[in-house]
Amino acid sequence: MVTTPEADYAEHHTPEHRDVSGGWLRPAVFGAMDGLVTNVSLISGVGGGGGSRHAILLTGLAGLAAGAFSMAAGEFVSVSSQNELVQSEVDKERHELTHNAAAEQLELVGMLRRRGISAATARLAAAEISAHPDQALAVHAIEELGVDPTELPSPYVAAGASLVAFAMGAIIPLLPYVLGFDALWVALTLSALASIIGGGLVARLTARPFWRGALRQLVLGGLAAGLTYLIGLAVGGMAG
Length: 240
What we know:
- This protein is an all-alpha fold.
- Helix content is 80%, strand content 0%.
- It has ten helices and no strands.
- The N and C termini lie far apart (84 Å).
């Protein structure tokens, strides 16, 4: 098999990138951290107000179920609506390419020129791209809308990732109470460890220092839990 220099270069020098277009990472990370912070805050508030183990467990389980389904529904509607909006704009672009092909080709020349391509090369490239309707539509969508219509995120994947991740995050501060412990400090310690590990792993996934993500998540979670604990303490004192 004969290979061209360009193909040989691409084979040996093209870096491997992770898939960033699947639509699962953001809802999964957001869901897990939201579940952890939401439930540790709920538990802190009820615990600060003098709630019993049964009350804390009931509150935590209700928060887990409500939050997981709410997050999943929100992600599904959000991603579906975004995809529908993108598809509507892509349909407009398809109509323009069909009924105003010459104008769209000139528009593509202008877009290529703005990217630093010479006028002659831009005209040649625009003519070649415009000769293939599907390719032209994809290029116009990327240039004008900033999206690839063939790689839109799945609302089902986003909703599923969000639901599962939220539940996994929310169960962590509940574990001590599920196992029979009735000590708020155990739940808070476990949640702090989960915040450090989760925040650090997310940071490493995005090539950032572990400690930065861990510290950020720990501080944010600690602030939320601390504030709700104080609120619970104040309300519990008033009730007493």
